[in-house]
Amino acid sequence: MIYLDTHIVVWLYINNSDIFPQDVKIAIDENDLYISPAVILELEYLFEIGRLEERAEKIISALAESIDLKVSETAFLKIIKAALDIKWTRNPFDRLITAQAIVDKLPLLTKDEIIRMHYREAFWQ
């Protein structure tokens, strides 16, 4: 099982697999793929500000069908408590998404260098 950061979800949705290194493609193919509910909120935010053309629900539904993407059901209060300890970013989405992976003790696939510097289980290659 691995968690996906928001930009990974977008790239999978638009089928931009060329951007992924070979190790990442293998990780995607060989693992159950999960997202934090915060990814859904961030996708909708990106739609609202015009950076995405599709609403979050459409993106998540399409990926649930095509790659069996799942949304974590870990208790929100646990995520918030973990996010309170994340001081290295002011981005609430990055805090929640990383906290989700920390609480569930799972790797987080992200190209974000700051997340990878601070969360040992975050990876890109």
Strand residue percentage = 5-15%
Q: Which CATH-level-2 architecture?
A: 3-Layer(aba) Sandwich
| The CATH fourth-level homologous superfamily | 5'-nuclease
Biggest sheet details: 5 strands, parallel
Which class best fits the helix and strand makeup? alpha/beta
**Low-pLDDT segments:** none
DSSP helix count?
7
Give the topology, please.
Layout: E1 2-4, H1 6-13, H2 22-30, E2 33-35, H3 37-48, H4 56-67, E3 70-71, H5 76-83, H6 92-104, E4 108-109, H7 113-118, E5 122-123
Helix pairs in contact: 1-4, 3-4, 5-6
3D architecture notes:
The structure is a single chain. The chain has 125 residues and is of the alpha/beta class. The chain has a single domain, classed as 5'-nuclease (Rossmann fold, 3-Layer(aba) Sandwich). The chain has seven helices and five strands. It has a five-stranded parallel sheet with strand order 3-2-1-4-5. Strand 4, helix 7 and strand 5 form a beta-alpha-beta unit. Helix 1 packs across helix 4 and helix 3 crosses helix 4. The relative contact order is 0.21.
